[in-house]
Amino acid sequence: MSHSTVNFTGSVDRDLLKRAKVVAAQMETSLNALFNAQLRDLVETFEHGNTQKNSNYATLLAFSLGKLDDHATLDALGMDSEEDLFLLMAQAHLPMPRLPQAETGRMVAALSALMQ
Of 11, 30, 94, 114, whose CB has the highest number of CB atoms within 10 Å? Predict the structure, then answer.
């Protein structure tokens, strides 16, 4: 199978890009090589799950992307432990979802109010 490359345009958080450049430099590789390796791993793992008729990875990816909350994810996976979910996310090499900025702000405000 021959591999050809194609250029594409995308956007990424400025801080994330800076940090990714540092990682690439420390690994003595290019940002492009890092991106390709990560994207290939994600796609191949997703496709393998689909081929095996196992939707667990797709469920974990949806959780990582913020499309499912932790309760729906636990239910879909037949799990009852958030600790086990977090371990499964680490094994799948997927990042934990981030809360929306507004929700994080509300949580910080609530914690600050408790400390007064």
Answer: 94
The CA distance from 50 to 58, in Å, is: 8
Categorize the per-residue pLDDT at 1 as very low, low, confident or very high, splitting at 50, 70 and 90.
low
Q: Tokens 């290939």 identify what position? A: 40
Rounded CA-CA distance 30/46 in Å is 24
Is the overall model pTM greater than 0.85, yes or no?
A: no
What Rg, from alpha-carbon coordinates, does the chain have? Answer: 18
**Cα–Cα distances in angstroms (integers) from residue 19 to residues 12, 23, 53, in the given order:** 11, 6, 36
* C-alpha atoms less than 13 angstroms from C-alpha of 82 in its C-beta half-sphere: 4
